[in-house]
């Protein structure tokens, strides 16, 4: 027997649930052939999904007429609620650290407050536009949409699907979005390390905005810029030993992806934290004792969900916001800034 494509099966199942939620009682669903063509799957996958929906009492089947919404499947109140599809990164990405988990938690809480039903949309990059177009959702919430920026802009320009995206690297040219300007984050990180007594700060800056925030914090403290200490994360394992020998950095502003490299280095050099060097990381609460920068997850998501809800309900609304700021959560990887020797 032919194997079922599990991802396509889940997408088709959610599409059918959405139809049950919003569909007209007594109107037949698309045929098996139409559903197979729409989702680019075999009839086996379509039939498996339809059979599961009948077993769970969402659908009923009428011989020679097709599949219909079970009029007793959902109460009227449930059928009036909007359904939002959530994209976090793109399909196939696991929740591999605290960042997407924090966003997911904030999205769920915000959707509950706005009386919105939520589904997670899984998709490959190559089929994003198609899968969003046939999702039958009332709106799309896209967290960390940078790698799909072209698709986001195409949906915003060419369809009537309400969509709000969160971007970290660059702003899209159109659409409703929040842009996390990392200038604020890196200014805050660098300024905090300076207050903790650091004067030679190595920073993994992953965008031009981040670089400017780092530079401005140094400039305001009248600390000369050492360009070599602005490092790309992927280059750090290779260049860290030579940079340390040349400049003896006493502060490190790193992402979680470079933390293991930093650990290996300080063990090799027999350095102590925060005695010899001080460290600040990006948001990763699992390392609970470290000094980290914390994103305002709830504020970001509340703005996005609120604006998406307004659009889905026919109100004229736009969202192009970039002034969210981080906070510092002090930990044991930095000294007390109030006691630092300047």
Biggest sheet architecture: 6 strands, parallel
Q: Which series of helices and strands comes N to C?
A: HHHEEHEHEHEHEEHEHEHEHEEHEE
Mean of residue pLDDT values: 86
Low-confidence stretches: none
Provide the structure class: alpha/beta
Number of helices: 12
Order of the strands making up the biggest sheet = 4-3-5-6-7-13
The geometry reads as elongated
Percent of residues in helices comes to: 40-55%
Strand content: 15-25%
How far from one another are the termini? Answer: 73 Å
Number of strands: 14
Radius of gyration: 25 Å
Question: Explain this structure to me?
Answer:
Helix 9 (208-220) links the parallel strand 8 (201-204) and strand 9 (230-231). 41% of the residues lie in helices and 16% in strands. The longest helix has 17 residues, at 6-22. Strands 4-3-5-6-7-13 form a six-stranded parallel β-sheet, sandwiched between helices. With 342 residues, it is an alpha/beta fold. The chain is elongated, with a radius of gyration of 25 Å. It has twelve helices and 14 strands. Helix 2 crosses helix 3 (43-55). It has helices at residues 6-22, 32-39, 43-55, 76-79, 98-113, 128-133, 149-158, 182-195, 208-220, 236-247, 259-269, 297-312; strands at 59-62, 66-69, 83-88, 117-120, 139-143, 163-167, 176-179, 201-204, 230-231, 251-254, 278-281, 292-294, 320-321, 327-329.
Task: Provide tags for this entry.
six-stranded parallel sheet; four-stranded parallel sheet; alpha/beta; 12 helices; single chain; 14 strands; 342 residues
